[in-house]
Write a structure and sequence with these properties.
This protein has 520 residues and is of the alpha/beta class. The chain is built from 15 helices and 20 strands. Helix 7 runs antiparallel to helix 8 (196-210). The longest helix is centred in the C-terminal third of the chain and has 20 residues, at 405-424.
Amino acid sequence: MNDLKKDEGYSPLWDAVVIGSGIGGLVTASQLSSKGAKVLVLESYTIPGGSGGSFQRNGYTFDVGASMIFGFGESGHTNLLTRALADVGENCETLPDPVQLKYHLPSNLNISVDRNYDKFISDLICKFPHEALGIKTFYGICWQVFNCLDAMPLLSIEDPAYLAKVFFKAPFACLGLARWLPINVGDVARKYIKDPELLQFIDIECFCWSVMPASKTPMINAGMVFSDRHAGGINYPKGGVGVIAQKLVRGLKKNGGEIRYKSRVKKVLIKNKRAIGVQLINGNKIYAKKIVSNATRWDTFGGEGIKEALIDPKNVPSSEKRWTNRYNPSPSFLSIHLGVDSHVIPKGTDCHHLILNEWNEMEKEQGVAFVSMPTLLDNSLAPEGKHIIHAFTPSSIKEWDGLDSKAYNEKKEKDANTLISKIDKILPGVKQSITHKEIGSPRSHRRFLGRYQGSYGPIPSTRLPGLLPMPFNSTGINDFFCVGDSCFPGQGLNAVAFSGFACAHRIGAQLNINPWALPD
């Protein structure tokens, strides 16, 4: 593992090489660089951020993925995006969203999740007055979970020294949190609530960010989401979601780190059961003390249809084989990015919407439609007199693979028009107002984001006990780590930021560069 000369096609030794510049990978890299580590990020695409990035077209700035962002609060410990940026001397100007999400549900059940918690609860009780106590109790328990999380620095729970310090600092919060680790949302909701329609609403409350019903959604995650939307609030980064990744990259560089674009990693180099570097598709090899994969667990260790994962099959730990039996990839998305004439969106329209026509369609192909209009918060994202509509609906790669070019393009147009028809129900006349249109299929997500089946993360193949079965950052290979939505605590920008903090802390402990004191 000695340094190799640059003129032989290799870089000098790095403390850590991070494969992929999704938010999880960038938080890991920037956290390590802020502690003095020498870090290199290798990104196969031309811009950072992955599904948390942005792209420009004809004067529009479109978010690749969702624009409903948690983690930009100003207090406590769950504001992980704020903290990650601050640790490398950066910050994002944000714009508060007064309503997290407006639901358009069967039987004309329309519910807005107001930023003000009391108003949300009051509005929900008005819809279900006979469940007033159950509503207050269920969402009150979510606050209990959130308060436990918010009372402690969220770092690696794989580090015994960290756990001891946290327990000493906040013993009751630790004990309270441990209670909820093996519990799913459905267990709690069905204990206090009996109304079938209200339970279906809680299912869709979970599905909108976990792509799972309440019975499969960990209570820890729900405690974070259902409460942080009222505590820290939903705050949109001015300039688009991609600004987060850009500023993390700037912070990384400011602290001596480096990122290289168009640098696709072919495989991780392993010697004596220890990761020692990576090989790029051009044959170049880069050596480091620690290797981090921000690819999905499937792209890292292998999965159905993957010809060549980052880890050679002979080196895949048995624990990773067990993981693939416990989890399936979530569906990908059919997405459309539209530029529309501004008159089609009435003044006072909420930014984020979810449309579900029939309850039994929630987990079906293209059953739920998500609609975001970020220009209602930041009009600089579109030309004057225009708005952005970004809509997406879950869609399986199996519906798209095997189509020839003609059939593929016809399906894209047909399915996009179906999605636009759903939008037309909340924005009449939208189809006639479109001035720009981009359509992305699961094949697009797989190609441009380098994600297995275009998936946005794992979902349990069967009902599992909360977060306990989820893998952490360490793997069965020495000096090799994973980060992102395939790791504890799962999907979402704030969740993968948590994963990034944890991964950097775990590596920092091994490199002996972590500060002794816990963050304030």
